[in-house]
Design brief:
1 helix, mainly alpha
Amino acid sequence: MIGQAKQAIDGERAAAVADLKAEVAKLSLEIAEQLVRQELKDDGHPNKS
Protein backbone atom coordinates (compact mmCIF):
# COMPACT_ATOMS: atom_id res chain seq x y z
CA MET A 1 0.00 0.00 0.00
CA ILE A 2 2.74 2.48 0.94
CA GLY A 3 4.76 1.32 -2.05
CA GLN A 4 1.86 2.06 -4.38
CA ALA A 5 1.44 5.52 -2.86
CA LYS A 6 5.15 6.24 -3.36
CA GLN A 7 4.90 5.09 -6.98
CA ALA A 8 1.88 7.32 -7.53
CA ILE A 9 3.69 10.28 -6.01
CA ASP A 10 6.77 9.61 -8.13
CA GLY A 11 4.59 9.41 -11.23
CA GLU A 12 2.87 12.67 -10.42
CA ARG A 13 6.21 14.32 -9.69
CA ALA A 14 7.61 13.13 -13.03
CA ALA A 15 4.52 14.46 -14.83
CA ALA A 16 4.83 17.81 -13.06
CA VAL A 17 8.52 18.07 -13.98
CA ALA A 18 7.71 17.24 -17.60
CA ASP A 19 4.98 19.91 -17.64
CA LEU A 20 7.36 22.47 -16.17
CA LYS A 21 10.04 21.64 -18.73
CA ALA A 22 7.52 22.05 -21.54
CA GLU A 23 6.35 25.39 -20.13
CA VAL A 24 9.94 26.64 -19.77
CA ALA A 25 10.69 25.63 -23.34
CA LYS A 26 7.56 27.42 -24.58
CA LEU A 27 8.39 30.59 -22.66
CA SER A 28 11.99 30.48 -23.86
CA LEU A 29 10.84 30.30 -27.46
CA GLU A 30 8.43 33.18 -26.95
CA ILE A 31 11.18 35.31 -25.43
CA ALA A 32 13.60 34.43 -28.23
CA GLU A 33 10.93 35.29 -30.81
CA GLN A 34 10.37 38.69 -29.21
CA LEU A 35 14.11 39.38 -29.09
CA VAL A 36 14.57 38.45 -32.74
CA ARG A 37 11.62 40.59 -33.78
CA GLN A 38 13.05 43.53 -31.82
CA GLU A 39 16.47 43.00 -33.39
CA LEU A 40 15.00 42.89 -36.89
CA LYS A 41 12.92 45.97 -36.17
CA ASP A 42 15.95 47.84 -34.82
CA ASP A 43 18.12 46.88 -37.82
CA GLY A 44 16.19 49.34 -39.97
CA HIS A 45 17.27 52.25 -37.78
CA PRO A 46 20.74 53.73 -37.32
CA ASN A 47 22.47 52.92 -34.05
CA LYS A 48 22.22 55.64 -31.43
CA SER A 49 25.49 54.67 -29.74
